[in-house]
Design brief:
With 273 residues, the chain is α+β, with helices and mostly antiparallel strands. The chain is built from six helices and twelve strands. Helices cover 26% and strands 28% of the residues. It has a single domain, classed as Endonuclease/exonuclease/phosphatase (Deoxyribonuclease I, Chain A, 4-Layer Sandwich). Strands 3-4-2-1-12-11 form a six-stranded mixed sheet, with no helix packed on it. A six-stranded mixed sheet has the order 5-6-7-8-10-9, covered by helices on one side. About 4% of the residues have low confidence. The radius of gyration is 18 Å and the shape is globular.
Length: 273
């Protein structure tokens, strides 16, 4: 029995040397979305997550009703995050979901993308409050630890997006050590040639940087258009100190052939060094 337990723990530890990460803007619960309202999409969101089986999932535009539905149907996951309007339950979350059987939460916090990140606030030329949620995790039955940050940048304020990128990098520098494993997921509302992405890429590695060469239709915003023509990527996964195994984006549709969200999810398979 002891031998079996040892083998099981060793196998589990080995599996945890590789992790799968997904970033996905699931579109907030907007009653004016017609055929694409949340009630018509929510089961497909859950099915997608279960089928892809990520270890970590950074979501954007999640409201409380959506969070409640996801928590009810994704029982093997726990999450961290708060609503941006009051630091509790109001407004959109940028939650991080993680497999609770494989990872132990050490600490978590949400800060606002502004000059006063510790308080509820609007930053620079942003149109509304924007936040970043992070978690520090330990791989169970292992000494491996990692930081994960998840955010959603403003869609209006160019200065806000650039300053938000600088603020997150500053936070990462303050919290983590040089050799720590770090992941940043998010909808940054910025194309890959923008200054915002250049700022992030100076310190972190863009896991999908070769997507343009692999897939000419590599955009991640479909706008619920059934036959979109796009090649602008605004959703990303960045990493630091991992070995990157594979990455890409996915086209996910409901059983009726409509988009599951107005964004396409992106994924990265990473390995601890």
């Amino acid at each position: 029995m002891q031998c079996f337990l040892f083998i099981y723990l060793f196998f589990l530890t080995f599996l945890n040397q590789e992790i799968k990460v997904i970033s996905y803007n699931i579109r907030y619960n907007n009653p004016n979305d017609g055929k694409d309202i949340w009630e018509n999409r929510r089961s497909s969101v859950v099915d997608f997550i279960k089928n892809e089986n990520p270890d970590f999932l950074g979501l954007q535009e999640v409201t409380l009703s959506q969070l409640t539905y996801l928590n009810t149907n994704l029982t093997e996951y726990s999450y961290v995050g708060v609503g941006r309007d009051d630091g509790k339950t109001k407004g959109e979350y940028s939650p991080i979901y993680y497999k609770k059987s494989l990872f132990e939460l050490i600490k978590t916090e949400t800060f606002w993308l502004s000059k006063t990140p510790g308080s509820i606030s609007v930053g620079w030329d942003a149109s509304m409050e924007r936040i970043c949620t992070y978690g520090y995790f330990k791989v169970r039955n292992s000494d491996k630890k990692l930081w994960i940050f998840n955010s959603h940048f403003d869609h209006i304020g160019k200065i806000a997006r650039e300053e938000s990128a600088k603020l997150i990098l500053k936070k990462i520098s303050e919290l983590s050590k040089k050799d720590d494993y770090v992941i940043l997921t998010g909808d940054f509302n910025s194309t890959d040639t923008s200054k915002t992405i250049t700022i992030l890429s100076n310190d972190l590695s863009d896991t999908n940087c070769d997507m343009k060469n692999i897939n000419p239709v590599y955009g991640t915003y479909n706008g619920f258009k059934l036959n979109p023509s796009y090649n602008n990527r605004i959703d990303y996964i960045f990493e630091k100190n991992f070995n990157m195994l594979s990455s890409g984006h996915l086209h996910v549709k409901t059983k009726t052939g409509r988009w599951v969200s107005d964004h396409n999810p992106v994924y990265a398979n990473l390995k601890f060094k």
